[in-house]
Amino acid sequence: MTGSPHPRAVAVTGLGLITPAGVGREDTWTGVLRGRSTADTDPELKGCPVDFSCRIRAMTPDQGRIGGRKAWRMARFTQLAVLAAREAVADAGLDPASWDGARVAVVIGSGLAGAAHLETQTLRHHQGGPDLVAPSLIPMLIPNMAAGEVSADLGTHGPSMATETACSSGSTALAVARDLLLSGACDIAIAGGSEAAVTPVVTTGFARMGALSGRVDRPELASRPFAADRDGFVIAEGAAVLVLERPADAAARGRRGYALLAGAGLTSDAHHPTAPSPGGEYAEAALRTALAEAGLSAADVDHVNAHGTSTPLNDRTEAELIARVLPHGPSVTAPKGVLGHTLGAAGAVEAALTALAIRDSRVPPVANLGAAGSGSGSPYDIDCVTGAVREQRVTAAVSHSFGFGGHNVVLLLTAP
Fold first, then answer.
1. Which residues in the chain show pLDDT less than 70?
2. Is 86 helix (H, G, I), strand (E, B) or coil?
3. Is 1 helix (H, G, I), strand (E, B) or coil?
4. Residue 374 CB neighbour total at 10 angstroms
């Protein structure tokens, strides 16, 4: 590497993941390494233009998992956030019973928050009038409630907030949490993203705007990031929470961490409600800002966890960005081929997977890219990992997130 770690780096000391590939950090990682899509026909989407999704099928959050009367007051996206946060905190070796809660921050991002609950309650109002609308509608709808319930569950009293930057919400949460740590506002930051908006209306909305793959005959082959014949993403649900600490604080309690969050770049295209800026110049600016914060050059990057939605415009713009700024050809993976698009949770999920790639020196393959019977390979001059896991020591990796509204977030993670 050409530079030294920047003083703005923070340590990733805990990870929590709940995704369609598995319930828990290691189950998810195993599923992503396997490289097979989790998409399947979804009975709840029967009659929609697209009737398949990537759901968390191994478990349903309930009162037994959340505990006592808490579950009834939480929308599914909040439940997932609480469970992921518990895993992350335990993984970091932290005990909420003994920490100073006033020095712990929580930042959780979500794109559509309680949209599923709003959809259900709107139908009840239409069918039976106002008396059928649940009193829990508003607290289950508003996007800050995941952060609020995580704070209540873990007993934190520091800054608690939500980020909303569409599909980059989880990445934005991590960048904000890092800044809270570095400002001295907290000593521990619990941050990530959560989404559970696989509903008939939301799915139909994405389908009507042409964002979803229409391969209803073979849903398991639908999400194919960077393939020449990609036609859209597969909607999904999931959550990821990371624990961040200042490196000296982590070392003082004997924790090395998975990785360092060494840089973050945030920019806005200011171009279009949904389409990326064709030249990708502001996504590039975000990438270069992350590099500068980390004290690294573009040539130092040896791995890219791509946003890779499998939509025609996004993948083309992102592939051109990677080829232009990182011409030395770092390995590229795109987890949405396996997991689908978890919307506001995606950036946090992918940051966690990047940290695991650093830990294990393993890069997952891009599902459905160039595999027999699953469509064509990539026409782009980037080194997508295909077929099987690539054994590779990862020392500096970028994780891209690009959201509707032109929100660009690039996180740069390095080996600890």
1. 1-6, 60-64, 68-69, 371-376
2. helix
3. coil
4. 19
